[in-house]
Request: fold
Amino acid sequence: MWAKSLLLAAVMAISSMVLPGLGGASSAQSVQPGWMVPVQDRGQRAANVMSMREAADLVRSRYGGRLLNASREDNGNRVIYVLVWELPSGDRRDFRVDAATGQIS
Reply:
């Protein structure tokens, strides 16, 4: 039994030297919850642009109705969301929302 304990201690010591992020106090510092960013948010929060969901909520609050389809266009340095919307009257309309300013056209 002491041989297994000795072997385990040796493996832990070697792994902490070879892979410092896996053991000891350094592992708590190597991964912080705030560092994990959902894929859809990577690059967007730094540019202060709204998400597609926020754009849909903006259109819903102004016009009512429901979202039928959505797509994203990158026009140079601008992100535009194209939202296909069904209005409360039943009519369909395409809205273009500037992700940086929130302007709806």
